[in-house]
């Protein structure tokens, strides 16, 4: 058993007590009143039978049938899977060749070119429109030809720094069409974050826009790109989408307008034949070390995972209009805005705005207007809309909805009930989905039409996913029900990430080595007396804020760059709106007189420092708990436990309170790179900062 220094035990807490009522599949999922019959149903036995086929002795046969039924291949595969967790050399359908863009666009274009592929819900509702598969096909081909004319070839990396415009989907698929590996960077990240990711993936081409629009505000996207590229010598060409039409600086010989380049090229571009295991994209995500890791996803396995989860988890049928309100800069947007729905050939939604712009009825306006059938968003957005009251939702026709989904973090039962009663009117299935960037698609999730749900539980594993709950101290399998430990998968699944870009050792050490023979998700979990799985939260130094992972080391490293900061320690604690909030304890240098400096001014300076390195963040000053003034070696742990305990009373019931004795406190971040365990960072001159949820708009971003 590998040493478990990076894993802390989450104390068993009855966080799911009192929320044991189950909700059977609702009327809209029973195939009545002209609605489609569920793919899996009518009861748990139907789910169990299919799941057992997908993980049983003949599981290779099950996967081969799904791969051939769901995907279009240029050449067939012979081997279903090879490799495993021992060396991390995992392969699915290795001899087969296909193309992601062909599967997501061409085959649907040839069959039904006038079907709506994308609903573009623009920041200003009046700018919204629909894009057909014909239009999508032509635009993808044009941009693919632009990239080819610039010398981009199979295996080259292309960075994409675009806000939520429908052309972001085009950029992904244009890369996939020619075999280029796209690396999307969330358009809210800073110039420094963009620079680091562009340099790491060594791209020569970047795709961006003049400006972005969100929540009625204009974002100077191109200016951020220019600042980043000042330190990216490898970038030779920049393709700039004209989103607002504002005049922005264009570097001669490097920067080119999307429309001007695309219009002069043909509307057809041949698809590159890609091996199943060829990389499709790189997506950077936070890790416990602080340095973002480039997670690499392959082509066939990832496509199949997206296809199957969209079909079964959301019970999607050919005429459905699927809406995931995430951002394409995150894995949720990759899988459930772009590749999953489009591979299935249904209508997907690109939502550019926020849940509360121009009013708190924005989601419900979109459902009513476009007759959306599925809605997938973050618990943070649901909690925000719940705060806004019922008036914003009650006067809308939401009868088209059948399935409501949540993503990014466990949903607290209060938000679940509000979502069920007001958005679903008690007639929709709610799927609380558990997965992560590295898994590619859902791991634990209800199947509407088959699995009765419990508010706050992710319920049972998806098809092909076989998980155990392990004792975090020794890796022993905790058998039976009513147990709690850490969650790990026993076998690979097709959509699993294949490696960390140019750092396979980190891939193995992070996911395979903690519990040999398993893939370790990094989360605590419990299984209740009925076998339902409850996700308990991170057990490493990663904070989940509004469904997005943030490394404590990343924040500490940003804070320590301030000229007056000596040491910092960052922790995550429960928050009513964002799930978790970031608390940063900061010790100033002896020569820095905090009394002579306005606390508000200093707080703003520190927030700016973090924003420069990471991206959008807002901090407010906070009072540390009484134990924070102690200079004993254990006060950091006590402070953390007390902070978490204080906020957990107001947070999601299943979000456990970390124990003060859960594990030794890691060293605080020091400007001298020699942290001291004997003196906590808040001894002497001290400042406690807390991420400010009031600045959030609740978007699933």
From TrEMBL:
GO terms for cellular component: cytosol. One of its GO terms (biological process) is acetyl-CoA biosynthetic process from acetate. It holds the Pfam family AMP-binding_C. Residues 1-36, 618-701 are annotated as: Disordered. InterPro entries: Ac_CoA_lig, ACAS_N, AMP-bd_C, AMP-bd_C_sf, AMP-binding_CS, AMP-dep_synth/lig_dom, ANL_N_sf. PROSITE patterns: AMP_BINDING. Gene3D superfamilies: 3.30.300.30, N-terminal domain of ligase-like. Its EC number is 6.2.1.1. Residues 1-20, 689-701 have a biased composition (Basic and acidic residues). The keyword Magnesium does not apply. Residues 628-651, 657-681 have a biased composition (Low complexity). Keywords: ATP-binding, Ligase, Nucleotide-binding. Belongs to the ATP-dependent AMP-binding enzyme family. PANTHER family: ACETYL-COENZYME A SYNTHETASE (PTHR24095), ACETYL-COENZYME A SYNTHETASE 1 (PTHR24095:SF14). This is Acetyl-coenzyme A synthetase. It comes from Cutaneotrichosporon oleaginosum.
């Amino acid at each position: 058993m590998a040493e478990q220094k990076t894993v802390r035990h989450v104390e068993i807490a009855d966080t799911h007590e009192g929320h044991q009522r189950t909700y059977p599949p609702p009327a809209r999922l029973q195939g009545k009143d002209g609605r489609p019959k569920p793919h899996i149903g009518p009861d748990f036995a139907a789910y169990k039978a299919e799941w057992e086929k997908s993980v049983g002795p003949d599981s290779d046969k099950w996967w081969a049938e799904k791969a051939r039924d769901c995907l279009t291949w240029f050449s067939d595969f012979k081997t279903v899977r090879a490799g495993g967790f021992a060396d991390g050399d995992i392969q699915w359908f290795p001899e087969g060749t296909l193309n992601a863009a062909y599967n997501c666009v061409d085959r649907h274009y040839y069959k039904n070119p006038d079907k709506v592929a994308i609903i573009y819900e623009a920041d200003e509702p009046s700018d919204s429109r629909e894009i057909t598969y014909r239009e999508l096909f032509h635009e993808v081909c044009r941009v693919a030809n632009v990239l080819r004319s610039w010398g981009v070839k199979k295996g080259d990396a292309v960075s994409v720094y675009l806000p939520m415009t429908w052309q972001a989907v085009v950029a992904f698929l244009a890369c996939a069409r020619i075999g280029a590996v796209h690396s999307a960077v969330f358009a809210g990240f800073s110039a420094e974050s963009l620079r680091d990711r562009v340099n790491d993936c060594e791209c020569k081409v970047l795709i961006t826009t003049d400006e972005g629009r969100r929540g009625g505000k204009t974002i100077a996207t191109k200016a951020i790109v220019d600042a980043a590229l000042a330190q990216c010598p490898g970038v030779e060409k920049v393709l700039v989408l004209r989103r607002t039409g504002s005049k922005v600086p264009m570097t001669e010989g490097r920067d080119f307008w999307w429309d001007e380049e695309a219009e002069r090229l043909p509307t057809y571009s041949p698809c590159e034949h890609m091996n199943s295991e060829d990389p499709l994209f790189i997506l950077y995500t936070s890790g416990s070390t602080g340095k973002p890791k480039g997670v690499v996803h392959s082509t066939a396995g990832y496509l199949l995972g997206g296809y199957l989860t969209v079909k079964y988890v959301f019970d999607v049928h050919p005429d459905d209009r699927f809406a995931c309100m995430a951002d394409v800069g995150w894995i949720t947007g990759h899988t459930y805005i772009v590749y999953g729905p489009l591979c299935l050939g249904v209508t997907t939604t690109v939502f550019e705005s926020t849940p509360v712009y121009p009013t708190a009825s924005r989601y419900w306006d979109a459902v009513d207007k476009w007759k959306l059938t599925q809605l997938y968003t973050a618990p943070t957005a649901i909690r925000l809309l719940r705060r806004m009251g019922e008036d914003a939702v009650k006067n809308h026709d939401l009868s088209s909805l059948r399935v409501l989904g949540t993503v990014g973090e466990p949903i607290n039962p209060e938000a679940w009930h509000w979502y069920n009663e007001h958005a679903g009117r008690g007639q929709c299935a709610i799927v609380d989905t558990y997965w992560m960037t590295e898994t590619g698609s859902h791991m634990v999730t209800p199947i509407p039409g088959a699995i009765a749900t419990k508010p706050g539980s992710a319920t049972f594993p998806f098809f092909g996913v076989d998980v155990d709950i392990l004792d975090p101290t020794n890796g022993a399998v905790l058998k039976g029900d009513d147990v709690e430990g850490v969650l790990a998968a026993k076998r690979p699944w097709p959509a699993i990430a294949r490696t960390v870009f140019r750092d396979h050792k980190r891939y193995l050490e992070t996911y395979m080595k903690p519990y040999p023979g398993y893939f370790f998700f990094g989360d605590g979990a419990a299984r209740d007396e009925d076998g339902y799985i409850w996700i308990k939260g991170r057990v490493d130094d990663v904070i989940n804020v509004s469904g997005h992972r943030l490394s404590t080391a990343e924040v500490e490293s940003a804070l320590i760059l301030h000229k007056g900061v000596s040491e910092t320690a960052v922790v995550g604690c429960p928050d009513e709106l964002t799930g978790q909030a970031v608390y940063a304890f900061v010790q100033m240098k002896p020569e820095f007189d905090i009394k002579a400096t306005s606390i508000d001014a200093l707080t703003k300076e520190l927030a700016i420092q973090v924003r420069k390195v990471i991206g959008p963040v807002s901090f407010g000053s906070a009072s540390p708990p009484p134990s924070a003034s102690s200079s004993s070696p254990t006060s950091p742990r006590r402070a953390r436990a007390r902070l978490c305990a204080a906020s957990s009373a107001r947070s999601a019931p299943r979000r456990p309170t970390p124990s003060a004795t859960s594990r030794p406190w890691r060293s605080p971040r020091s400007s001298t790179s020699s942290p001291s365990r004997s003196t906590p960072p808040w001894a002497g001159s001290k400042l406690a900062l807390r991420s400010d949820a009031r600045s959030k708009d609740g978007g699933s971003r």
